[in-house]
């Protein structure tokens, strides 16, 4: 079989994925014209904001315009609205006034898109632009190859990250004569390279600089014993995939992608899954979801996403 892709795209693999990752079933679906209409809209005033506006007034005004919506959130003085249908979205986008105020309604920058991964060796014979051009009719707007590091060099793998301009991932796409299964793309947790903690970048870090071994920064790349993870306090580096906190952060990433939440909202949701008698580390190491399998697509498990 050319490229060796067909064995990886059968229906049995899809069913197995849904069984192992029940949360991911919520974003698996079929793309179409209905899905191409943005469901996540940002409503903002042309003058002022909604920070101090009564939630009851917002709710009543919104209901009068388009009826009941799925969800409304105040975000930095603006309203993030998730509609229940494309018809509602179209109605809201046309609105120019809201409770006597001039407004602007625009699609959210990222929530109306979704990312998935496909595996096909034969696509390595195509340029990124060629893949993108031939898949744009299936709502693909961006393509990136996942790379793996071997002997100090970055090498292309047969895994490709596809960005769709729809909220629901298609189960399968047709790449020439290859039917390719689309798996949800769950990125690695954001870890600060300054303090080694999760949830923020070094640009916004307010903590002291630390090495991955848990000690203050030191000369050379060799870390002396004892090595203590700055996150879980166990004997491994902050980069270890076996770290209980890393596994918990991967769960947060999954919930964030599935439920389309901010990092902090996803963390709150995951924290509610931990009972008072269960420690943070115990919950993270519980055999519920094999995190590595969420990341693994095709044989190249130890791969990294490089733009």
From TrEMBL:
Top-level division of the source organism's lineage: Eukaryota
GO molecular function per UniProt: nucleic acid binding; zinc ion binding
SUPFAM superfamilies: Retrovirus zinc finger-like domains
Protein name, per record: CCHC-type domain-containing protein
């Amino acid at each position: 079989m050319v490229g060796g892709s067909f064995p990886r795209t059968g229906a049995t693999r899809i069913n197995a994925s849904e069984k192992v990752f029940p949360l991911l079933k919520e974003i698996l679906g079929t793309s179409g014209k209905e899905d191409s209409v943005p469901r996540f809209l940002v409503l903002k005033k042309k003058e002022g904001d909604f920070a101090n506006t009564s939630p009851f007034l917002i709710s009543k005004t919104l209901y009068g315009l388009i009826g009941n919506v799925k969800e409304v959130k105040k975000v930095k003085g603006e309203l993030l609205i998730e509609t229940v249908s494309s018809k509602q979205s179209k109605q809201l986008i046309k609105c120019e006034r809201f409770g006597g105020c001039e407004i602007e309604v625009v699609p959210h920058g990222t929530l109306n898109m979704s990312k998935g991964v496909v595996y096909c060796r034969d696509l390595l014979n195509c340029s990124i632009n060629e893949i993108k051009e031939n898949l744009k009719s299936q709502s693909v707007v961006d393509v990136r190859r996942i790379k793996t590091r071997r002997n100090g060099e970055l090498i292309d793998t047969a895994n490709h990250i596809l960005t769709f301009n729809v909220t629901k991932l298609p189960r399968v796409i047709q790449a020439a004569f290859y039917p390719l299964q689309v798996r949800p793309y769950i990125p690695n947790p954001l870890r600060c390279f300054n303090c080694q903690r999760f949830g923020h970048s070094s640009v916004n870090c307010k903590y002291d600089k630390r090495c991955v071994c848990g000690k203050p920064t030191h000369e050379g790349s060799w870390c002396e014993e004892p090595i203590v993870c700055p996150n879980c306090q166990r004997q491994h580096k902050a980069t270890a995939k076996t770290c209980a906190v890393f596994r918990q952060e991967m769960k947060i990433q999954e919930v964030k992608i599935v439920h389309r939440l901010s990092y902090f909202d996803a963390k709150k949701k995951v924290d509610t899954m931990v009972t008072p008698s269960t420690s943070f580390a115990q919950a993270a190491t519980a055999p519920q979801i094999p995190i590595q399998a969420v990341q693994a697509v095709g044989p190249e498990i130890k791969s990294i996403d490089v733009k």
